[in-house]
Amino acid sequence: YQRRVRGSIFCFAIGRSSLKMNRFSLLRNNKLCFIAKKPRSFFKSNFKLFFEINKRTLNRSFHLGTFPKALTEFNMTDIGEGIAEVEILKWFIKPGDVIKEFDPLCEVMSDKATVQITSKYNGKIIGLYHKEGDIAKVGLPLMKIDTFEEPDNLSPLSPKQNLPRTTDERSLSHSIRSKQGTPVKVLASPAVRHLAAKQGINLSMIEGKGKDGRIRKEDILNSTSEYLIETNLATPEIEPITYIEPSIPIAESDTVIPLRGYRRAMAQTMTESLSVPHLLYAEEITMDNLMIARKTLKPLAESHNIKLTYMPFIIKAVSLSLKKFPILNSTIDKNLTQITLKQSHNVSIAVDTPNGLTVPNIKNVQNLNIFEIAKELSRISENAQSNKISPEDLAGGTISLSNIGAIGGIFLKPILLVPQVCIGAIGRIQKVPRFDSRGEVVPVHLMGVSWSCDHRVVDGAVGANWLKVFKDYIENPIKMLL
Which pairs with CB-CB distance under 8 Å and at least 24 residues apart come from 158-167? Predict the structure, then answer.
């Protein structure tokens, strides 16, 4: 019997002429599947099977048995912002689970945000490449999924255990099993090893037809599904995290903590900031008028379920001051050839979380009122504490604020969050004695503020004049309404 399939000629010589015609079909995964109408009588007969494959179909193989599973490797999704790797925080599935499209698979944490990865397929989880706490590279496999894709126009063969095997098949199986108990050296090129790992095939189970038993690509492609070991998933080549052993032995009570997530992002950012010359400027601001304004507006805010602190006023004062000094809301390119003035006032707020310091931002503060700023501040703070901050909230910041006064302290030197050129640190409010205009000692409430600027962009006089405008808005909050 001879038939053309997509330009290839397949020839078959069958021992018994009484055997009815058999069907051949090319599967989606480029494997040729043979289906006999009388499988038992066919395999018991003495037959020879020959097939020729032209250059166009050289990579296709002949397959006897049940339909192969449509195994799909689910790669780690690119979540943007130039992120190259993530930490697996939590798996929502396990091998053997049946999943549907858009089902949550895992929760991962990058240097900038925590993201939930969802499925793109319907299918069954075959295996996972990582455990919780591992680092996964973007673009490399996270898991292997059986997507249940079978041809619609073919009926599958009987289970392979019910089909008698030919003499050649039995001898091949015997030669493989005789080697299972003894370690053998597998001869194969890197390309062949990569193909075997991708297909989930154990090379020690393949009989090499090349010189000195070397396993060729054709040996992998011609292997039957009986020798596929689906449960032994190939681990993607990911460089392990290593730690340098100190010369002095570590005491048994010492603990090594991997630097990951927000902490690693902060370490990288602070290291980059060391190359930027910082201009530091500090000032004391009288808070009495702002305290009265907040006390007046607080009942109205509470009636709208808004938590009104001093920070919304400070954030708005920053934005109003930037309108007069836009150079502080800018970035400079790495080649130091141009400065970009940002039109949006996206104020980044440092938030301390259980996983480390993160800096989400409130977008377009120049268009928001005090209450709207307060609502956004509450939202990003709550999301950061619950580890649900989104990449959108972290991207695009133009100037930063750190409210160190909520913990304590009056002044400090804030470190720039590059490529931003300005960051402020808000100290605690304290009641102290001061002389008034008549020379009398009066109690006042003072707040210490510290500002750092990129001295390559911001001159000392510009920074001082900007802080003077900012101070005026805080000390006279009624001007924020103008």
Answer: 158/39, 159/66, 160/64, 160/65, 160/66, 160/225, 160/226, 163/39, 163/40, 163/43, 163/64, 163/65, 164/40, 164/43, 164/44, 165/43, 166/43
C-alpha 377/C-alpha 375 separation (Å) is: 5
In angstroms, the CA 313 to CA 461 distance is 25
Q: Which residues are catalytic?
A: 455, 459
Q: Is residue 362 a contact partner of residue 369, using CB atoms and an 8 Å limit?
A: no
Which tokens is 37 given?
A: 């109408």
- What single-letter amino acid sits at 8? S
Based on the number of CB atoms within 10 Å of its own CB, is 88 exposed (0-12), middle (13-18) or buried (19 or more)?
Answer: buried
Burial of 262 (0-12, 13-18, 19+ CB in 10 A): buried
Question: Tokens 């069958």 map to which residue?
Answer: 14
In order along its 482 residues, the chain shows pLDDT tens digits of: 344 444 443 444 343 333 333 434 333 334 444 444 444 444 444 443 433 333 334 444 444 444 445 688 899 888 766 678 888 888 999 999 999 888 999 988 876 677 888 888 889 999 999 998 888 898 899 999 988 654 444 444 334 444 444 434 433 333 344 444 445 567 777 667 777 777 777 777 777 877 777 787 777 767 644 443 344 444 445 444 444 455 555 556 788 888 777 778 778 888 888 889 999 999 999 999 999 999 999 999 999 999 999 999 999 999 999 999 999 999 998 888 999 999 999 999 999 887 788 899 999 999 999 999 999 999 999 988 888 888 889 889 999 999 988 888 889 899 999 899 999 999 999 999 999 889 999 999 999 999 999 999 999 999 999 999 999 999 999 999 87
Residue 249: both structure tokens together: 């032995």
Distance in angstroms (rounded) separating the CA atoms of residues 86 and 115:
10
Cα–Cα distance between 1 and 12 in angstroms, integer?
Answer: 5
CA distance 177 to 204: 10
Query: What secondary structure letter does DSSP report for 154?
Result: -
Cβ–Cβ under 8 Å, residues 465 and 281 = no
Distance in angstroms (rounded) separating the CA atoms of residues 34 and 23? 6
Burial class, 248, CB count within 10 angstroms (exposed 0-12 / middle 13-18 / buried 19+):
exposed
**Three-class DSSP category at 266:** helix
Tallying the residues shown for the chain, one arrives at 482
The one-letter code for the residue type at 204 is S
